[in-house]
Amino acid sequence: MIKFQNVIKKYNNADTALNGINLQINHGEFISLVGLSGAGKSTLLKLIIGEEQIDGGSILIDDIDISQVKKSDLPYLRRKIGMVFQDIKLLPKRTAFENIAFAMEVCGHSLEKIQEEVPKVLELVGLLHKRDSFPHEMSGGEKQRVAIARSLSHRPVLLLADEPTGNLDEVNAGEVLDLLLKINQLGTTVILATHAADLVNKIKKRVITIKEGKITMEQEKGKYKL
Fold it and tell me: Residues 190, 183: contact at Cβ < 8 Å?
């Protein structure tokens, strides 16, 4: 599904964020991407969605070299990909339903499709009863689950989660993790970038460790190791 071949990414033509990354991720996998802050985890995710450009090598998504995709065509690629951030970024003056509906509207979905799909994704994340709640009326965990629902509204084949539990307590973090595992079980490929060792150890799936821009370890059904 995703293949990194000798990928290099530099900032300011000097600082090397990623150095010679070779990595293959298959359909339906759950990947824990671990490493200290600044190791290159977020950069790797940004390269997948085309937010950053590589300085060497290639990245293939379903055999499409994304470095060759025109900037005007990137939105079409991103419709296959859901993205969840530590900074939840919900619209504060819109309800849970409206936050998801707005994302679908931007992607060009019809009103009929929006009315049909939004309740489904809210039910999937266990928040149908919060459909009319505003962000300030929800807990941190609930807001993150709405953000995940929003990322799922266009039925992506790949979900990228960049430190989605970073601002959450242990209980809410556990609920978000369980939701990501559920989404993976339904067939969506999930890449979770995190430094939360307890969560990674609970998942017991493939773990990729990045240190100073290089992959230093890969484990099947692994644990958090640096």
Answer: yes
